[in-house]
Design a protein that fits this description.
globular; disordered C terminus
């Protein structure tokens, strides 16, 4: 029985939301899946990859058993075909490159990009579920959890936070995504939900800051601009709320607890900049510049087909050894766009750009329903954050980064109303 919603109190709103948890098995599982995939990327790490592949396999089995029918809208197919073409391009350019026998070992990660063909139908089997709401609620929850974990790891153990991500940079980037998505709750009509969104923004930004990932810190700027643009009235209201002062106090206390590590990171950044200005490419920033110069040189020699993902780093060696510095064992060029251009030239570069843009494309062209702006701004935040972080960090071919983006894109597609269903219902 559903508790009637009382608009006068936020307590009744929350009780009504809990009571509306779907009773149907598939609906309930899809709802919970959306929440977990929003909550776990930063603190759960590869758990989201395990969940994604579990969803994928179970969706295929369910389709064969007839538990739900294969159903994809035009926008669903646009997404699935874009991902599939990306997979085909990566495989094709790898097989025509040198040592193609080594390539198949590097293809497993691409399976995630084929999952929309099965999982979207599973999501479409629950047309009554508003996937965006549990997802951004999960993201807000995950942002708060990420900040707490980061504070504990940095202040008590004196290590860069990474939670279960296994990499501080990936943890920082996932925290950035959760900050942006969870922050969208500031546009809610409920004051409690609005405040939760504000907390998610503060906590997510805190987790990014504590991760000491400089690229993710810079990417916070456009994410915040998108959030302000999404709900300007809410931002003004929150700025005048007494809780804002409490948030500033909490931020000051947090910075005090981790000031030593923050100061050390800042000093190292200044040292790296000075070394780069002196032409010494031996620091973290300098190593990135070495990789970028070498990548540009290698790409200019094979701009169309690239070298195949199994040969990406080998293609950089002839240029890297010229300066006499140590050639480190990097697995990517610390720039997602250059990395894919190495893998497959213009073909792979075009394919990865299409993958990044397709969530925005389908969200932009979706019907103007009640979730239109929420869906569009979510897509803008994730796509821009991946692109900006990808300038200095890994972007794809990392299980957490792949699983997060793929599931998010599927959720965007599945949240777009199916016009054929409405037509059937009205006839």
């Amino acid at each position: 029985m559903t508790i009637p919603e009382n608009p006068k109190t936020d307590r009744n709103r929350m009780a009504a939301a809990l009571a509306r948890l779907p009773q149907n098995g598939i609906d309930r599982n899809n709802y919970i899946s959306a929440f977990l995939m929003g909550a776990l990327p930063a603190v759960g790490g590869s758990v989201i990859s395990v969940l994604l592949y579990t969803f994928f396999v179970w969706a295929i089995i369910s389709l064969f058993l007839g538990r739900f029918s294969f159903r994809m809208t035009r926008s669903d197919r646009v997404l699935a075909w874009t991902f599939t073409i990306f997979v085909v391009v990566i495989i094709f350019t790898a097989l025509i490159g040198e040592e193609p026998s080594r390539a198949p070992l590097s293809f497993v990660w691409l399976l995630a990009f084929l999952s929309p063909w099965a999982i979207i139908s599973r999501l479409r089997a629950s047309p009554s579920v508003d996937y965006l709401q549990p997802y951004i609620t999960g993201a807000a929850t995950g942002a708060v959890a990420a900040c707490l974990v980061a504070l504990v790891q940095l202040s008590l153990f004196d290590v860069r936070p990474e939670a279960a991500a296994g990499n501080p940079a990936v943890f920082g980037m996932m925290s950035l995504m959760l900050m942006g998505l969870g922050g969208l709750k500031i546009g809610s009509s409920s004051r409690i939900a609005m405040l939760f969104g504000a907390v998610a923004i503060g906590a997510g930004f805190g987790a990014v800051l504590l991760s000491l990932t400089r690229g993710a810190m810079v990417a916070c700027i456009p994410a915040v601009i998108f959030l302000v643009t999404f709900a300007p009235q809410s931002v003004r209201s929150l700025a005048r709320h007494p809780a804002t002062l409490l948030a500033f106090v909490a931020a000051a206390v947090t910075l005090y607890l981790v000031q030593d590590m923050m100061v050390l990171r800042w000093e190292r950044t200044l040292q790296e900049v000075n070394l780069v200005l002196q032409g010494k490419l031996t620091s973290s920033a300098g190593e990135r510049l070495r990789l970028w110069y070498a990548a540009q040189d290698a790409i200019s020699q094979s701009p169309i087909w690239g070298y195949g993902l199994q040969n990406r780093m080998g293609a950089l060696t002839p240029t890297l050894i010229l300066d006499g510095n140590l050639v480190r064992g990097f697995t990517h060029a610390h720039n997602g766009f250059l990395t894919f251009a190495l893998d497959g030239g213009v073909l792979a570069l075009s394919a990865v750009i299409a993958v990044l843009l397709v969530p925005v494309y389908i969200a932009w062209n979706a019907p103007r329903d009640t979730n239109y702006r929420l869906r569009l701004f979510a897509a803008l935040i994730v796509t821009s954050s991946y692109a900006l972080c990808g300038m200095t960090q890994i972007m794809f071919k990392h299980d957490i980064m792949d699983s997060f983006f793929v599931f998010f894109s599927m959720l965007i597609a599945a949240s777009i109303p199916d016009k054929s269903e409405k037509a059937t219902a009205s006839s």
